[in-house]
Amino acid sequence: MKSTKTTYDRRSFLKTSLLSGGGLMLSVSWLSSVKAADKLQALNVPEQWAQLNGYIQITADNVVKLLCPNPEFGQNVMTSLPMMVAEELDVDWKNVVVEMGPHDNAKLGPQFTGGSNSVRMYWKPLREAGATARQLLRDAAAQTWNVPAEEITTKAGVLHHPSGKSATYGEMAGKAATLPIPKGVKLKAPKDFTIVRQSKRNVEGKKIVTGKPLFGLDYKPAGTLVAMIQHPPAFGMKLKSFDAAQALKMPGITNVFNLNLYENGFEQGGFDTRTFNDLLVVVGKTTWEVMNARKKLVAQWEPAGDTTDTMAGRSGKRAVTVPGGLESTTAQLDKMAQYANQPAQQLRKDGDPETAFKNAAQVIERTYNAPFLAHNCMEPMNFFAHVTAEKALLVGPLQAPGWVEPTLSKLLNLPADKIDIQMTRMGGGFGRRAYGQYLYEAALVSKKANAPVKLIYTREDDMTYGIYRPMYTATYRAALDADKNLIAFHVKGGGIPEHPIHANRFPAGAIDNYLAEGWEIPSNITIGAFRAPRSNFNAAAEQSFLDEVAEAMGKDPIAFRLDLLKRAKEKPVGTNNEYDPDRYAGVLELVRDKSNWGKAGVATPGHEQYSRGVAAYFCHNSYAAHVVDMVTRDGQPYVERVFSAMDCGIVVNPDAAKNMVQGAVVDGIGNAFYGALTLKNGVPEQTNFDTYRMIRHNEAPKTVDVHFVENDLDPTGLGEPPFPPVFGAVANALYKTTGRRHYNQPFKPDPEKRTQG
Fold first, then answer.
1. Which terminus of the chain is more exposed, N or C, with fewer CB under 10 A?
2. Helices 557-570 and 581-594 sit at what angle, rounded to 10 degrees?
3. To the nearest whole percent, how much of the chain has pLDDT over 70?
4. How many alpha carbons lie under 13 Å from residue 87 in its C-beta half-sphere?
5. Could you give the CA distance from residue 563 to residue 588 in angstroms, rounded to a whole number?
6. Range 503-520 average pLDDT
7. Using alpha carbons only, what angle is made at residue 549 by residues 547 and 551, rounded to the nearest 5 degrees?
8. Which residue spans within 188-325 are E strands per DSSP?
9. Could you say which DSSP state residue 719 is in?
């Protein structure tokens, strides 16, 4: 057993009371402490939990009920997080019930789902919560039976003593509630896990497949009005005037008005953003009626000009100027090419790369480009709001309730304790729902309309309203000496409106002469986090380039990477290298072995031999590698199968983890082949799935064979790390398939010519 010192006193960890019928409730802070439930409910706890968040509840019938505070958008935290509590509590998983909790900033912190943080951040606090509750139950049994607590064991929610005495947790819960919090509880060693590392079904699986109302779009209480926003037709424009006479005559329409999201000088939070500040709103009884009335609006638009936003966040308070103008993809590409030839910000420099390139026998230089990408969550943005002068209720899909609450409080002029944010299951997130402007919009519309309102974006709204993955470019250079040794490496990357470069990641630390630079171009195109921000482009370009360098050196792509990692381990350059060379090499070796790398491609039925591409990457504290096998069908390349290797530490729920990797692989293939959002005079040229191409069922790989490096390291990220190297592996396989390198995304134009990218 591994002992860990608990940092909770009785006041910060637990205040307990006897449940009617004898039960124990522990209100758990899933970030740092375990706190009291301010008011315990009756034994048969109702569906509405008021202000209770993050708890362990044990009923007299020995049922354990866990409230998951973290928003769920398909990564299965509602199963994996409670599994960690249940493991240390030592209960039978069949007796565990899990529910989504509301937002409670005071008790639960930001409750943020994103950045592949959920399991990693909560690994120790949740286990300590379970272990402390288990020890309380042992202490209660020891006092009841007048025996030393050390003699009492637990198994599947039952306490046992060598004398033959036994009791369920539920029978001892009442007494346990009165005892002091134990110090120095012992956590299980990984070898003793019985729940963690065992596959458990999604606790909401049955609800999902039977169509239960879990998602934000499902939530619409009686009397709720529907609202939609007409935004400007182009980025860089704003509302000048409007005529709503015809719209107001349409059936079911109750109101049309305009308002501003932020007033002049409003100080935004670190994750606040605005695509368009002027909101032209139509409110009515049904979605269909509002959609039709919105078409009857007569609006005049004008150039927005340069605007200045006041931002506050992790970087401190600052003014951000958003340029005016109507931007087009063609002009953006020209401007990026211009910036790429100008001096840039030095991000890292090792050795003397300038001299090494000057003296090189061969220099390889390649430039990679990638377009804006739309998140395209299957569930468009939506939120319910009921705002009065005294309080506000908001319900919907949201990744970061703790980050939106301060801004919402300022916008509504309501204290935080008068704002109730309830989180629903999300139909996709990928970073899009970390930005809460659609929640702010719903709240302001409800306040203005003086009614409960459901704000809904159409698919066209969602795709043209932002928020996008930035537009990126990067130029890579490698210097070889006369013996084909790699002697220098240079990456210079930029983007609109941010650069993608992670200067301290591989191959930094493995090359004596290394230079990383970055530059940025301001824009009025709204951007935000997109599954593995920056890494999703950086990995694509870097891993494609490394393959080309390996070929020039006459080396196998995997062997080349392993040689660099060996150097980074044995004689590292610099001290700021973010990655662990052993773990990085581990996923490459695992995927090499599982894919039988190096053997001739095996022909698949009806097809020629497949071509192979490999890529690996480190981000969000984890390591991922993929081998992509590609075939040609009807003259088009398709990914036939994929081998994936991951090192994310201890895997809490193996089946769910495999599903996450498989989803990332399919998502990566689709974005690499087809993903692109282009603009003409500020207007997005793709507005729905008929023009923004998504991967289709017949284009997905037939198999994605996922393997995990087995170790006892604390869990690290998993939602994002598998995604970035997919792009590079696809590009490298395409080269083997088509005989030419691909430097611009998307790699594969739609055969039906339905994309503009």
1. N
2. 160
3. 89
4. 29
5. 11
6. 98
7. 70
8. 225-230, 237-243, 253-260, 267-268, 278-284, 298-303, 307-311, 318-322
9. S
CA distances to 588, 642, 725 from 565, in Å: 10, 23, 17
Chain-centre distance for alpha carbon 24: 34
pLDDT at 273: 87
CA distance 419 to 472: 39
Question: Token pair of 241, please?
Answer: 């005037």
Q: How far apart are CA 505 and CA 520, in angstroms?
A: 20
pLDDT tens-place string over residues 516-538: 999 999 999 999 999 999 999 99
Give the closest residue to 202 by CA, choosing from 588, 656, 539, 572: 656
Sign of CA dihedral 449, 453, 455, 456: negative
* Residue position matching structure tokens 């001739």: 600
CA 434 to chain centre: 9
* 87 or 749: which leads in pLDDT: 87
In the predicted model, what is the mean pLDDT of residues 86-107?
A: 84
Rounded percentage of the chain residues whose pLDDT exceeds 90: 74
C-alpha span between 529 and 642 (Å, rounded): 26
pLDDT for residue 31 is more than 70: no
What is the model's pLDDT at position 32? Answer: 34
Average per-residue pLDDT for the chain: 88
Task: Determine contact, residues 177/17, Cβ cutoff 8 Å.
Answer: yes
Helices (H), 146-276: 169-176, 205-209, 245-248
Q: Using only C-alpha atoms, what is the Rg of the chain?
A: 28
Check residue 314 and give its pLDDT: 66
Question: Cβ of 633: how many Cβ atoms within 10 Å?
Answer: 14
pTM: 0.91
CA distance 433 to 401: 10
Distance CA 372, CA 679 (A): 9
Neighbouring-strand partners of residue 387: 392
The DSSP letter of residue 416 is G
Q: How far apart are CA 363 and CA 35, in angstroms?
A: 61
Residue length, the chain? 757
Residue that has been written with the tokens 């970061």 in this structure: 400
Inform me whether the pLDDT recorded for 265 exceeds 80.
yes
In this prediction, residue 604 carries a pLDDT of 54
Beta-carbon count within 10 A of 482 CB: 8
CA dihedral 613, 617, 623, 624 (to 10 degrees): -30
Task: Kindly give the pairing relationship between strand 513-520 and strand 345-350.
Answer: antiparallel
Does the pLDDT of residue 331 top 90, yes or no?
A: yes
97 Ramachandran zone, left/alpha/beta (phi>0; psi -120 to 50): beta
Answer yes or no: is pLDDT of 59 > 80. no
Q: Encoding tokens for residue 182?
A: 């134990």
* pLDDT for res 505: 97
- Residue 662 clears pLDDT 60, i.e. is over it: yes
How crowded is residue 184: how many other Cβ atoms within 10 Å of its Cβ?
9
Q: What is the pLDDT of residues 542-585, one digit of tens each?
A: 999 999 999 999 999 999 999 999 999 999 999 899 999 999 99
Longest Cα separation, the chain: 84
- Model confidence at 24: pLDDT above 60: no
Let me know: does 563 contact 597? Beta carbons within 8 Å.
no
Closest CA relative to residue 53, chosen from 117, 115, 111, 135: 111
pLDDT in tens, 268-307: 988 898 889 999 999 999 999 999 999 999 999 999 999 9
For residue 334, the one-letter residue type is D
Alpha helices (H) in 554-653, listed in sequence order: 557-570, 581-594
What is the C-alpha to C-alpha distance for residues 298 and 248, in angstroms, rounded to an integer?
A: 12
Residue type, 173: A
Q: Indicate the SS3 state at residue 135.
A: helix
Task: Give the C-alpha separation, 722 to 86, whole Å.
Answer: 28
What is the amino acid identity at position 194? T
Q: Which amino acid is at 382?
A: N
Of the candidates 168, 164, 95, 96, the residue with the CA atom closest to the CA atom of residue 137: 168
Contact 255, 283 (CB under 8 A): yes
